[in-house]
Write a sequence for this structure.
């Protein structure tokens, strides 16, 4: 689109096609591209960009309202025609061309303005460039050249309208996205904030991914009984149905055709491995489309699948359990509605301790099936719990009920902080806080608390990465002041040090008392750099500076386990 088509730059095969298509072999200037000549693959790439990277609504399942600014009527019609070829599941309703010459032009414009109606994409030829107010509009596609600066800014203005609750209750529109394929920003010397687009996982992708996790865990020998085998087969059939529904003509599907073909075979799912999990989640999952408009029901499905997975992995997902309990409580206030009243026993059972003691994956699946269609009856403000991110903290199974434990502390980090502050006088913790030598039994104690009592290794890694456990505990409990002063006592009693140098050492002690250790890069920051830092401060005696660093290393090294 920027350079046109130059005959001499084509391959021999392309030259033959060019000669059979056009009457002459004259170069085609860029001005004619998307004016009299349309390249199908170029349009496919633009559509693919938009559908993959555009801002989404409906928990990431549906492209937000979008305007594609087309060059002319033929270009607009070509875009819509190719979109419908790539996405036949939308039955020609998702994208519509809008221009003056179409019959009843006000009808598609009114439907485009309606946030609950299709089209989601309006392919405009001068009709929507100015003067239209659609708060839900989040994507603008410049698929044509604009040379009027006033018009350029008017077109951009289509995306600036505010919109409350666009992404769910309390989640307002805070940005819009521009795709510029004709270097209009470059032409007008506008420096936009560049981005690679929005690659958020849709709720449909998340559900597909967690079904794959369930299929994987259910092939474990612990789940070799008939009822588990039957449930696994149902999940496999469901996943296969989604894979076989992928339109292989789509640009992004053609690039993954080998994966689609491989995982369309049920035999592959008899014993899936980690490489299969990766392929299914990274290559297949983004291709899965949903035509189910009930985003609340789908999000509830995902909630229940997370609870099922936690059960099968013999752990407890407290945050998801809490959401289910809250759901049951909210629906319990709707017994005036027949559909809710019919399920009164189930709703009350979910709120009882006994349910969480004995419920299994099949009980959770029954809850999913029964309640998914009732979620929409919850008051809109209370529905907010279903628009949150489900990256829940996962903690180990406890004997007591999640109903009573779930709100004790919000997450694993808070449990860790609370425990070590509360039990700071425990012998092993006391020894660490007082900088005393730890034994192997002390180390085992810390491992037991962090990896068994408060959570597990996976949870620890998720919360703290590869941070050594002693360093973590030391950051929480700090170091006893007398123990810290003891390490630096020779500097504090050194009469050769001036007041600034003594103050520098005292600042180090204060920091270690609070944080348990001190990283050397901290010495380059306030308050340590007030007098030029350790190098300038001790330039009259670098040996002392080296001794201070050596002492810091000694304190830090004790925490590397």
């Amino acid at each position: 689109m920027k350079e046109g088509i130059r005959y001499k730059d084509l391959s021999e095969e392309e030259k033959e096609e060019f000669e059979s298509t056009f009457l002459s072999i004259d170069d085609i200037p860029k001005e004619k591209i998307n004016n009299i000549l349309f390249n199908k693959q170029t349009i496919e790439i633009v559509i693919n960009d938009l559908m993959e990277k555009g801002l989404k609504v409906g928990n990431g399942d549906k492209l937000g309202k979008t305007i594609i600014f087309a060059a002319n009527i033929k270009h607009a019609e070509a875009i819509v025609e190719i979109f419908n070829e790539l996405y036949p599941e939308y039955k020609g309703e998702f994208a519509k061309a809008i221009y003056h010459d179409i019959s009843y032009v006000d009808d598609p414009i009114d439907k485009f303005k309606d946030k609950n109606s299709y089209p989601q994409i309006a392919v405009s030829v001068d009709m929507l460039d100015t003067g239209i107010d659609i708060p839900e509009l989040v994507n603008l596609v410049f698929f044509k050249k604009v040379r009027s600066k006033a018009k350029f800014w008017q077109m951009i203005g289509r995306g600036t309208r505010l919109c409350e609750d666009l992404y769910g209750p309390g989640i307002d529109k805070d940005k819009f996205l521009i795709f510029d394929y004709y270097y209009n920003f470059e032409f007008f010397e506008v420096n936009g904030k560049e981005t690679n687009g929005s690659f958020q996982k849709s709720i449909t992708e998340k559900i597909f991914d967690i079904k794959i996790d369930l299929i994987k865990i259910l092939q474990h020998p612990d789940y070799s009984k008939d009822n588990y085998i039957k449930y696994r087969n149902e999940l496999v059939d469901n996943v296969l149905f989604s894979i076989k529904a992928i339109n292989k003509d789509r640009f992004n599907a053609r690039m993954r055709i080998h994966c689609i073909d491989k995982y369309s075979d049920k035999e592959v799912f008899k014993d899936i491995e980690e490489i299969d999990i990766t392929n299914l989640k990274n290559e297949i999952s983004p291709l899965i489309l949903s035509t189910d408009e009930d985003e609340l029901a789908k999000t509830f499905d995902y909630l229940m699948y997370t609870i099922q997975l936690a059960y099968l992995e013999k752990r407890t997902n407290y945050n998801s359990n809490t959401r289910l309990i809250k759901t049951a409580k909210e629906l319990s206030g709707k017994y005036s509605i027949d559909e809710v009243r019919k399920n009164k026993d189930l709703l009350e059972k979910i709120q009882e301790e006994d349910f969480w003691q004995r419920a299994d994956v099949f009980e959770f699946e029954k809850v999913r099936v029964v309640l998914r269609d009732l979620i929409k009856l919850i008051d809109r403000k209370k529905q907010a719990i279903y628009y949150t991110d489900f990256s829940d903290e996962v903690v180990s199974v406890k004997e007591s009920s999640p109903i009573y434990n779930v709100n004790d502390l919000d997450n694993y980090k808070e449990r860790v902080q609370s425990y070590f502050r509360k039990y700071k006088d425990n012998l092993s913790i006391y020894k660490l806080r007082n900088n005393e030598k730890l034994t192997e039994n002390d180390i085992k104690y810390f491992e037991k608390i962090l990896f068994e009592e408060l959570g597990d290794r996976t949870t620890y890694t998720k919360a703290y990465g590869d941070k050594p456990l002693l360093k973590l505990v030391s950051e929480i409990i700090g170091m006893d002041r007398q123990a810290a002063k003891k390490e630096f006592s020779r500097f504090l009693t050194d009469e050769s040090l001036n007041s600034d140098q003594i103050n520098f050492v005292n600042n180090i002690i204060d920091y270690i008392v609070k944080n348990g250790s001190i990283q050397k890069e901290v010495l380059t920051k306030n308050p340590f750099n007030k007098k030029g830092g350790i190098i300038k401060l001790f330039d009259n005696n670098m040996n002392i500076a080296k001794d201070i660093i050596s002492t810091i290393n000694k304190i830090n090294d004790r925490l590397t386990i």
Summary: The CA atoms of residues 164 and 172 lie 4 Å apart. The radius of gyration is 31 Å. The longest strand covers residues 137-142.
